Amino acid sequence: MSLSNAVVRTNFSNEMRTLWSYWDTMHNFFNLGPMGALFSNARLRERFIREALTRVINFMPPPTVTLDNQMARTLHGEFSCYRWVVKINSYSMNNTGYGEFIELATTIYHELRHAEQFYRIAQGLSCNQLEFPDLSEDNRLERTFDATQNNNALSAVQRGQQIFGAAPTPHVLSAQQIARLMYMPRRIATRATQNAANDFQNFITAARPGWCRQATILDAVKDWMNFTYKKSNQQPYMASNRDDNGDDIVRTAGGDTNRYLIYRSDAMEKDAFGIETFFKPHLETNIGVNAATHPLIGRPHPLFNHLPS
Ligand SMILES: [Zn+2]
Hints:
Order of helices and strands: HHHEEEHHHHHHHHEEEH
Largest sheet: 3 strands, mixed
Number of helices: 12
Number of strands: 6
Bound molecules: zinc ion
Oligomer: single chain
């Protein structure tokens, strides 16, 4: 399963259809009774989204959802690999317009895709289908030793052969190493290493999405990784905590001497915007109203009378 799979899209689209159906009456969805209307709709919407992710996302750990009231209004959400969190603009959660809602739902799918991108990189590293960029020889040595039972007994010559030799020992990255290299929570990396070979193989051999610009899905994952983690692609720290697109920061790098932030790569963004074109029209059809034609109508509009409330 994957966010680029039609079943997952349909499941999330159905969840978002339900969310819009009860957008102004969330207490009805949660069966909160006569006093339910006292609950904040925005908080109940947040709760709905959080629970919806756990219902729909079972092929990776679902990110936590948090609200942020400091984000610019043009930003709907962002994803942090470091914290495994999708942040949603609290402004979007308080909106009343249909167009804004469609943008919110589409943004969540976009941010979830970022989570999947990092998750696939971790899986690919775990099953040796990817080579992490710019690893120092020390790190290569460490990786080699990790896969070697008797590494303490190796002579200097043997160590040299393992680094430079023609037939290096296959190396396996541990969950801990993946978490450290990727600035990813340990529990996420641990989950990614479970059944990684099977899951990653299924992912890269699935039908290539129409928006995928690379020749193969494996090439796409390599681009996500290389354009994000290659040291030459590191960009200077920006006080705004935003990249050039005003979009999300992935993580702060560990180096104390040169303070860098790693930004999500352009390759990741192209794929995440690509998956929006896969999701958004499906959701609008599912709800039955076109957002471009009716961006400002609210949930009470008669066009939505067919929805439960
Ligand atoms: Zn993005």
